[in-house]
């Protein structure tokens, strides 16, 4: 999957800018020991160990998949990120179209149990090994816990180096909100973080989306982000 050529006279942006700037390896908080180094090696070094990254929803798998692709392209390599939910039922066609040195396949559990997609994934796995392409698998569970119908595919996936991500706790959510706010130049008081976690839910995707809104509205109002400001912004008591 390659970027289209820009029109004549248009400055070409670094390829890594195609990936969200906040989703980088160095902005991931709470990675297992050695995991970021393994991901960086896979992204940048031909022949590095393939990785199988597993973890529950909200643990940051997609963040790390996109970050690895950005890291690869920053190193001058071609990268492709494929959310398997978008390719389910036609995975063979989608995989055939990929042209990359690193491929991140996100959401293995979505295609598990679909025989045609599993065959396509098994064939891709073997082709990628033969071609020296790096592969990062992202899944909600370990290979043996997925409802795969092809034993050979389960075996191939089991040969990858596995990294298990932990579910987020409130401290990790606080750390992530604090870090994302800092990167935006936004001062987020501890009391405001506590209020957000108790009043708006703990889903990280929603929290980060809300943080973007808070940043925009506090800038427009020229207000510090305090609990009274959040109450007024969200219409809460």
Give the tags:
237 residues; alpha/beta; Rossmann fold; 5 strands; 10% strand; elongated; disordered N terminus
Helix content: 40-55%
Q: Write down the secondary-structure element order.
A: HEHEHHEHHEHEHHHH
Contiguous uncertain segments of 5+ residues: 1-16
In DSSP terms (H or I, runs of 4 or more residues), the helix count works out at: 11
What is the number of domains?
A: 2
In one word, what is the shape?
elongated
- What order do the strands of the largest sheet run in, or round the barrel if closed? 2-3-4-1-5
Structural class: alpha/beta
| CATH-level-4 superfamily name of the largest domain | P-loop containing nucleotide triphosphate hydrolases
- How many beta-strand runs? 5
The CATH architecture category of the largest domain equals: 3-Layer(aba) Sandwich
Q: What does the radius of gyration come to?
A: 20 Å
Instruction: Report the sheet with the most strands, covering strand number, pairing sense and barrel closure.
Output: 5 strands, parallel
The proportion of residues in beta strands is 5-15%
CATH topology of the largest domain: Rossmann fold
